[in-house]
Amino acid sequence: MKRGIFLIHRWLGIVVCLVMLLWFVSGVVMMYVGYPKLTSAERLARLPDLDSRRCCIAVDEAARALPQGIQPSSIVLTSAGEQAQYQFRSGKKIFAVDAISGALIKGVSSNDAISAAQVFMPQATPRYVDLIDEDTWTHTRGLDMHRPLHRVQMNDPERTLLYISGATGEVVRKATQTERFWNYAGAWLHWLYAFRGGPLEGAWNGIVVYLSLAGVLVAISGSVIGIWRWRFRGRFRSGAKTPYREPVMRWHHLVGLGFAGVTLTWVFSGLMSMNPWNIFSGAAPAMNQQAYAGAKLTPVTWPLGGRDALRLLPSDLHVKELRWHLLDGKPYLIAVDGAGATRMIDAKAQRVSDVAPPADILSAAARLIDAPIADVQLLQQEDAYYYSREAHTMMGGMSHSLPVLRIRYADAAQTWVHIDPATGVVLGKLDQRQRVKRWLFAFLHSWDLPVLLSSRPWWDAALILLSLGGLALSGTGVVIGVRRLRR
C-alpha cells in the first residue's frame, strides 16, 4: 500500500504538477482581472432614454410580427443602438421587433453593428472586424441566443472589442485590451479554455474534471507521504527532520507540509465547481413560473401600451427599459432607469408605485414551488447565501439588491427562493445541494464570506501568500518531475 501511494504521487504529480502551477498563477490574476463581460449596470447606463414622443407601437402590434406559434416567456422594450425595439424571449431564442415600424428584425448588418457600437461608446471610433460564432472571449452559454456575433474594434485608449448580437443588434459583451492581455494568464489559463471552441470542445468538461481529480489525489498522497517522511521524534543523521538533502526535494517536502492543505482545498473546490457527475443536481422541485405569474404573458390582451406607460412616469425618471411582468394574475410594467432603480406600473389601474403589493408577492409565492411555505424572511443585509462580488469576478455583476425576500419551502430539498420585494421578480433558487456546493466550491475556492470580502487588503494578502506557497510546492514538483522523466 505504501509503495502504491508513492507511485500515485510520483506519476500523477508528473502529469498535473505543471497544470497546478498554472492554476496558482492564474488564480492570483483572476483576483483582479476577470473574464470579459458586460454587466447589467454597464448595459443600462449606456442605453438611450425611451422617449414617449417617438416611441412606441403597442406590444400587441409588435407581437404580430413574431413567427407563428411563438409564445413569449418575457417581453422587454429596450434599445439597440438608438433604435427602440421589443425583445420577445421564447425558450432559448430571442426575437427583436422594431418598436417604430413593427418589423421583425431578421438580420443585423455590419452597419447596424457599427451604429450600435458608436452609441455604446460615443467618444470612440468603431471599426468593423468580422462576424463570428464563438471566440476566446465569448464561451459563455448565455450568449448562445445572440449568435452569430459581430465584432467591432473601438479606438479608445483601452482598445475595447465590442460584441454585437446577431439577433437584436445590441452590445452584449465588451473586452478591453487589458482584460484580453491578462486573461491569457488568468481565466483563459485557469479554466483551460485552450480546449474550448475547437475539436476538443466536447471533451473540455471531462479534461477539467479529471485533471482536477488527479490534482486532488496528488495533494492527498503527497500529504500522507510528507507526514510519513517527517521525524516527529528525533532527527535524521543530517540533523534535520526531513530525510531529503537535495535542495529541491528538501524544499518540496517542507513547503508541502506547510501548504499541502490549502493546495488540496483549492484543487478540490475547483473540481466541485464543475459539478462533477452531477452530484449537485438533485431532484429539487422546479419553480413553476407560470403559476407564480398567475396567467400567460399574452401581448394581444395587454391593457396598457408602452407609450402610455412612459407618459405615466415622472418626467425626471430617465427610463431605459420597460419590462412586462405578471404577478399573481395581475399585469404590471417595470420601468428601469440607468442606475437600475425601478418603478411599478399597474397596467390595469394605470397607476405608478414604488413597490409591488406585498400580499400579491406572497400569494404568488405560495404557488411557485409545489410545497408549503415554511418561513418568510426580509433580509436587510447580505449574508453567506445572498451577497455581491466585484463586477470582474465570475459571479460578479449580478443583481443583489436589498432588502430581499427569502422564502423557505417545506419540500424534501429544503428549497429557498429569493424575490425582489420591490418588483416581485424571482431572483434565484437554492436547494440543499446547491447550498452545499456554495461551501465546497465558492467558499473553499475564494473565501467569499461577506465579512472576509470586506476585510481587504487582508483578504488579498492572505490569498496571495497562500497562493505563493502553492506555487512553490507546484514549482518544485515540476522540477522533480522533469528530472524523473529525464532518467
UniProtKB/TrEMBL annotation:
InterPro entries from the UniProt entry: PepSY-ass_TM
Q: Which domain of life is it from?
A: Bacteria
Cell wall biogenesis/degradation listed as a keyword: no
One Pfam family, short name please? PepSY_TM
Q: What keywords are annotated for this sequence in UniProt?
A: Membrane, Transmembrane, Transmembrane helix
Q: Where are the transmembrane segments?
A: 12-35, 207-230, 251-272, 461-482
User: Mind telling me which PANTHER family this protein's record contains?
Assistant: BLR3280 PROTEIN, IRON-REGULATED INNER MEMBRANE PROTEIN-RELATED
Question: What is this protein identified as?
Answer: PepSY domain-containing protein
Q: Which species is this record about?
A: Herbaspirillum rhizosphaerae
Q: What is the lineage of its organism?
A: Bacteria, Pseudomonadati, Pseudomonadota, Betaproteobacteria, Burkholderiales
